[in-house]
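Input sequence (327 aa), recorded before submission:
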Amino acid sequence: MILVTGGAGFLGSHLVTQLLDAGHAVRVLERPEANVDHLPLERIELVSADIRNKKAIQKATRNCQYVYHLAADPNLWRRDRREFDSVNRLGTVHVMRAALDNGAERLLYTSTESILTSQEFNGGAAENLHLKASDMLGPYCLSKFHAEESVFRMVMEGAPIIVASPTLPVGPGDRSLTPPTRMSVAFCRGDLPAYLDCRINLIDARDVATGMMLAMAKGRTGIRYILGGENLLLSEWLNILSKETGQPVPRWKVPYSFALTVAWFSELWADYVSGKMPMATITGVRLTRRNMFFDSSISINELGLNYRPIREAARDAVAWYRLQGWL
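Predicted structure, token format:
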């Protein structure tokens, strides 16, 4: 039996599909309020549990040979900032410890590229990059940094855990509207009047799922595998989407200082008035000043990771957005 936490999410649903297609028995753990209607419920064992609940996680990880831990809060804002640490760090510790206590042979922890940047990092290989808490931008990044730290401490104790760090996933299937998809949909709808250019690495979510399976099968402990695709400027990604939709790229590039001011007021309004996701987040704006170009050659050469052209991911994403009635 293979357990996938967060199996109804953007990456998780693609991973579940590929595991089932490979003939594996799959158990999916999702939070009780999650939408799971898009999963092949007749082919999986579904467990509803919160990863912050130690007893529930102990039960969910029983009789699982392999565990893929994807469950996390991927957003860059929460009204209660403490939720990031409780879900992303403490929840990860619960899943890892419970799976190991129940005899899992191999585990994969899903980290993030947003913690692999600092003012000194110039992009490139980051498999063995060592960063500090002071390098992190905002509570989301800090929570994922501490989660990864906890995982590597377990690895030092001999735990068979592989760490995979996807870059920004795009493509079809993002029902929860993670930040990259939210921005892409806004552009495709004509609701993006301006943009803040930055350096990003994009990969199709389906290729991330394949990379996770390769990392589980072939990966070494003690390093992180960068599951990345193409390095692009945000303006280049918008141009690719423009060719799929006919939507013109905004002429106005937002100055960083203006974007940060807008994000500050947006979060202030969200914190004290609306309680809804702000138009811009302080963490998101600050990350645009970091170099998010990455080198995935170790994953390509060691794991055999292949990623499709990002134009193909854009084409399939736009077609899927239309099916959802978003455009």
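Checked by second reader. The chain has a mean pLDDT of 93.
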